What we know:
The protein is mainly alpha-helical. The chain is built from ten helices and no strands. Helix 1 (about 1-15) packs across helix 2, helix 2 packs across helix 5 and helix 4 runs antiparallel to helix 8.
Amino acid sequence: SRFWFKKTLNFIHSYPIKFIHLIGTKSLLFFNNYEIPDNYDYQFFKTFIPTLNIGIVSFGIVFLFATLGITLFLWTGPKFYLMYLFLITYASSVVLFFVTSRYRIPIVPILLPFCAIFVMEGIRQIKSISSKHLTFFGIVLFITASITFKPISLVDFSFSYINMGIAYEKKENFDKALKLYQ
């Protein structure tokens, strides 16, 4: 709406440093391995369903390997300009508005080919690139891993317990609902 658009522009104009800091924080959250919950908290469900901890490749691994694949094959591989453009525009749009794992998931299918390229051809490519490119690759690896796997302690299951309590309440299981509310 125009009202919120004007509010946003006023905030950016009045507090440009805060705006830059906010966008930086949201960017770190977007590219971090932590799954930011919206309606359902994946970390919460993992406490009740232990099999969710087994055999799942996290967003962080996919993002790290995809970034390394993109970095290695910028010099030697085919040019995927439309895929790069999609990654940049989609990530920017989510960062500008609302960062959650639900809105982040659409970039995973675009990241997977780059991830696969790195897994299948990465070691061979690393052996054959120049020392200048290898240094750049090492810097990208360090920065990406630092952002992706930086610990974030946003775990608060209170909202999840309330949602679960509501579900039990709707089933008229008031004892379980009360325990979850407490």
